[in-house]
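Worked example

This section walks through a single chain of length 166. The input is the sequence exactly as stored; nothing has been trimmed or padded.
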Amino acid sequence: MLNVAAGWEMPDDGGVDSPGDGRAGWSEIAVLPQRLGLMDELSAQENVEYPARMIGELHERRDLIDDLMDALGLAGLRERYPKETSLGEQQRIAIARALVLRPRLLIADEPTGHQDAGWAARIMWILREAAGAGSCCVIATHDRELIDGLDRGFTMADGRLTGSVG
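Given that input, the structure is written out below as tokens.
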């Protein structure tokens, strides 16, 4: 479902209206995959900056980059490379990278999967802030606490949405 929403795959039946058409930029759609997709040769800060650098808005996004890194506990890790950080820290780097352009659509697959309860709650707060600023956040998760904090939720079984939760 997340790949369909991102525009990377076509649905088996019906259609989907989303900004993703397989070519949408990071300001339209950002994806936070379970495998995180960090670039090993870039520092934590460079990974977060990457989308802004790619569209030529690094200077304009500097304050947001700093705010995201601070909010996600990454300020002291700016110069570290992904392999020098924990999996939870890597996930938070990927979250900051996904939010740095304030995308219209954020697709997040298990965004708290590598976090303890405190960081999971903080990430939920950050995602709610992103939603309040205009990003539609589509989250796939099995985390009951995260589900309980969502505005709307749906269950999925055998590739079909089967009902709403919450």
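What to look for: The longest strand covers residues 160-165.
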